[in-house]
TrEMBL record, chain A:
This is Amino acid ABC transporter permease. Pfam families: BPD_transp_1. It is found in: Cell membrane. It comes from Streptomyces phyllanthi. Belongs to the binding-protein-dependent transport system permease family. HisMQ subfamily.
Length: 287, 301
């Protein structure tokens, strides 16, 4: 237990311990003991689980190869594809709206700034589910006869977009403000109008800065697209969660849920990896 | 943004666009006939004031700069040199007074400032190249977006001006891979590619390692020789002596002295100028002198 890595990292730490060595365990011994206890608890918990769990029942419930097999290729060609479609359309709406709100937030016109601020506060403070219900139930009730273009796809794009825009607006604003002031001055001194300087010079640089948080937002939307469940969708419009749930109830088995979950991870884990790579790279560039 | 087509045409017309080479040619022939100073002023500054809140930074500046003239602006830190320069292309809005560039009143609220700025090149202490673009793109993008030049024309002007600053081989590089001196020369080329009639330099060599200063100054000297009208804020006294037609010494938001380099640097009339120059040329001695002076005034009751 006294491997060298377990030692207190800086030798300076001992400099603080002016008092003579106490009786009983030294700090190093205490640390070793604490580690030992943690490992022991872990091993005991795993062993208990392995013994207590009814593995056959679990396998039967969650990992029935025949049921899993029956899900293919539809789980990919229909469910995953719809999930991606919902996510991308929501992200697009959110990005466009977020950009507008970010620019309003940075405007010199007071009312624009306030409006943008109010939007951000409201939509960051509400559960995404409530917004889906609002789009799915409240809007049709309040404005009978109006049809959101694109049907379910339009509704999802709008609901996800409204939620995402609030977060993205703050991210984009921070990105724009992180571009050095000299860039705008150089562009203006060359004769760029403020709008054109923003589009050709500032925003491209801002996007490099905010690519990691935007990708994170994409991951969040990918998961939030499951809320489409509450809009009521046709068979062809089902995405991963709804598809998994439907199949789970028809087969009275949980395997479809496991498969759907794996499909989410298939996308979210690589994306998360990409984000961490980008963040590490950006960190390096700063140094 | 003020949309005023009539006005916006103004600077374009008065400023003979699209052919800097030709206008330089004609300026050279003018130079042979008329001595500097009798030519018509390219930059005219009248009673210029600028405050930031309570801080009066410029307190009444009057300055004329003739076509083809090179004026170096010197002065202690905080005296308002940058602010003066930035008022010429309206990066700072003057509180009071007028600025004319090439006969167009820059300070006129109805003027199309973007059109005016196209004809005023500016070079910054921190270079301010666009880091997401290659060297060539740094030169071509402003031409394409602002001057609406076609691809071939912009590329040609970019190549020519990179050649002028001696960086043709860096055309495809990104700014971050260049030394400070190279970046600054690209920044100069970027401004030149727009075909300006006036160039403003704000301490263009202050952020450079000493061994890189020479290349940038050489490019500026070349521009001066070609007859470019230049306003240069600098601490490079050797450059001012050699290249400037006039040196302006600023302190506390006013012009204290204005004359030939020999006069202002070699034989300053004002105590403030002398003090500034002695500090600049020999910081160590000036420090000692200052302390001695303070000691004297402090000691006498
Ligand atoms: N944007 C601004 N807002 C507020 N105060 C400013 C601003 N820009 C400049 N100032 C103030 O104006 C004064 C003059 O600044 P300026 O940059 O013109 O001086 P300078 O002569 O160029 O000095 P240096 O040699 O240090 O560059 C300083 O006191 C500075 O604090
Ligand atoms: Mg300055």
């Amino acid at each position: 237990m006294t491997d060298p890595t377990a030692q207190p990292a800086p030798t300076g730490a001992s400099a603080f311990e002016v008092q003579p060595k106490k009786k009983g365990l030294t700090r190093r011994q205490k640390r070793g003991l604490s580690r030992g206890v943690q490992y022991a608890v872990f091993v005991a918990a795993v062993a208990a689980l392995a013994v207590a769990a009814d593995w056959d029942r679990l396998r039967n419930q969650f990992a029935r190869p025949d049921i899993a097999e029956r899900m293919f290729p539809e789980v990919i060609t229909l469910a995953l594809q719809n999930t991606v479609l919902y996510t991308v359309s929501g992200f697009t709406v959110g990005l466009a709206l977020g950009m507008v709100i970010a620019l309003m937030r940075l405007s010199s016109v007071g009312p624009y700034r306030w409006l943008a601020g109010i939007y951000i506060e409201i939509f960051r403070g509400l559960p995404a589910l409530l917004i889906f219900i609002f789009i799915g139930v409240a809007v049709p009730l309040a404005f009978p006869g109006t049809e959101i273009i694109g049907g379910t796809y339009g509704k999802v794009a709008l609901a996800l977009g409204l939620v995402a825009a609030a977060y993205m607006a703050e991210t984009i604003r921070a990105g724009i403000q992180a571009v050095p002031k000299g860039q705008m001055e150089a562009a203006r001194s060359l004769g760029f109008s403020p709008a054109r300087a923003m589009i050709s010079i500032i925003i491209p640089q801002a996007f490099r800065i905010i690519l990691p948080p935007l990708t994170n937002e994409l991951v969040l939307l990918f998961k939030d697209s499951s809320l489409v469940l509450f809009l009521g969708v046709t068979l062809a419009e089902r995405e991963l969660s709804k598809y998994g749930r439907d199949l789970a109830s028809t087969t009275a088995n949980s395997t479809p849920i496991l498969v759907a979950g794996l499909c989410y991870l298939l996308v979210t884990i690589p994306l998360g990896f990409v984000v961490r790579r980008m963040e590490a790279k950006a960190q390096e560039a700063v140094k | 943004m003020t949309e005023n087509p009539e006005k916006s045409e103004n600077p374009e017309k008065s400023m003979e666009p699209e052919n800097p080479e030709k206008s330089m040619e004609s300026e050279k022939s003018v130079e042979a006939v008329e001595p500097v100073g009798t030519r018509r002023p390219e930059i005219r500054i009248r009673d210029l004031h600028k405050s930031f809140g309570d801080n009066q930074v410029l307190r009444g500046i009057d300055l004329d700069i003739a076509q083809g003239e090179v004026v170096c602006v010197i002065g202690p830190s905080g005296s308002g040199k940058s602010t003066l320069l930035r008022c010429v292309n309206l990066l700072e809005e003057p509180t009071r007074g007028q600025v004319f560039v090439g006969g167009t009143e820059v300070t006129d609220p109805d003027v199309d400032i973007d059109a005016v700025r196209r004809r005023i090149g500016m070079v910054f202490q921190q270079f301010n190249l666009f880091p997401h673009l290659t060297v060539t793109e740094n030169l071509t993008l402003p031409q394409r977006r602002v001057l609406k030049r076609d691809k071939a024309r912009a590329a040609k002007a970019a190549a020519e001006n990179l050649e002028r600053v001696g960086l043709s081989e860096k055309a495809g590089a990104y700014p971050s891979s260049l030394s400070g001196g190279q970046q600054q020369r690209v920044a100069i080329a970027r401004a030149l590619a727009m075909g300006p009639r006036v160039m403003l330099f704000d301490e263009p060599t202050s952020a450079l390692d000493p061994e890189l200063v020479g290349d940038v100054l050489a490019v500026m000297r070349m521009l001066a020789d070609e007859g470019m009208t230049m306003m240069v804020v600098t601490h490079e006294m050797a450059f001012a002596r050699e290249v400037a037609d006039r040196v302006v010494f600023m302190d506390g938001g006013v012009i204290v002295e204005d004359g030939t380099p020999e006069r202002v640097i070699g034989d300053p009339a004002h105590e403030r100028t002398r003090h500034f120059l002695s500090r600049l040329l020999d910081p160590a001695r000036a420090q000692v002198e200052e302390e001695r002076n303070q000691g004297l005034t402090g000691g006498s009751p």
